[in-house]
Amino acid sequence: MAIELRLPDVGEGVAEGEIVKWLVAEGAAVREDDLLVEVMTDKANVEIPSPVSGVLAKILAGPGQVVKVGEAIALIETAAAVPAPRPEEKKEAPPAPPGRPAPPGEPPPRPPAGEALATPVVRKLAKDLGVDLSQVEGTGPGGRVTEEDVRRTAAAVPAPAAGASLPEERIPFRGRRRLAAKKMVLSKTTVPHALLVDEADATNLLALREALREIALREKVRITILPFIIQAVVTALRVHPAMNASLDEERGEIVRKKYYDIGMAVDAEDGLVVPVIRDAGEKTIVELAREIERLAEAARTGKLALSDLSGGTFTVTSIGSIGGLFSSPVINVPEAAILGVHKIVKRPVVREGAVAARDMMYLSLSFDHRLIDGGTATRFMNDVILQLESMSVE
């Protein structure tokens, strides 16, 4: 008996997922709880186990396909449904393995529709020559596609006219990039963004970070400016609770959070992801630095847990190490605001009537204008800057 493997409800409000890769080949035997498939949700990557022992009979959803929770993604033939052959039954000869001739009197096995038997060398040749292997008639043993088959097919295709096409690369729009895009569109189409830009003197901040170098070495942790930014943000959020809020449109209520779970945008290779630092206001600089390292590494390797990606109350995106004067960050819905932190540049400023070289950086605050007025946003930004500029080695 074949049973359907359906995309389970992984919690946290996840309604759909994208198939990343199958961990078991079609036709392979599986045991109960063996991991079968990796699925990407808008929260994290999860691996789905087999609910029974048997054979992965058919894959219904391939890599890149988006499926809803509860939708069938594979068929599993349970072990009890595979009958043992009786002694008197005539056994048919098994299909010949690839590369060997079929037994006399039997037609050579054909690959499944849409697939082609070919060695890695032949596949690379087909890619280089722009040949679709599924459209090539294989003349090798068992229907295998040979190099000669690929070259013959390529020669039969007329060359495009000069100037008919331009060199380009097409990349599948899926995975983390597609999920991030979906959330960006939701944010920009449902939230009226407003932007506030100001600058902060980071001279004292850099001096404090340098003073903590020995502690960082002893604790085996890298201390960037982000832990200090987060501490300053939490202090300001305590004074301005409207900034640490979300809008429950269904119930018509503004929800002000009295806890401080700060999201940190991570520029992962396969797209933006925002893990959350829990109880950020209760952590020391070293504890924040260690948690930032853990979350950033997990984000870049795709190992974030669902609990690391949900429930943020405010987000900080620090892109200063890459560059840029300032930006207009997109709010991480349903939060009310996001703070962008930009590069630190030494430049002349006036201090106490005299020109001095100071380490300056721009801060950009995007906020939901339904929940936050310009005055509230400005006062919040003033307090963040005050905290940063008041940091001292003493």
Major sheet summary line: 6 strands, mixed
The overall pLDDT, averaged over residues, is 86
Q: Tell me the Rg in angstroms.
A: 29 Å
The outline comes out as elongated
**Uncertain ranges:** 86-93, 96-102
**Which range does the strand content fall in?**
25-35%
Q: What's the short version?
A:
By secondary structure, the chain is an alpha+beta fold. Helix content is 25%, strand content 26%.
Q: What can you tell me about this protein's structure?
A:
There is one protein chain. By secondary structure, this protein is of the alpha+beta class. Helices cover 25% and strands 26% of the residues. Strand 13 (266-268) and strand 14 form a beta hairpin. The longest helix is centred in the C-terminal third of the chain and has 16 residues, at 285-300. The protein is elongated, with a radius of gyration of 29 Å.
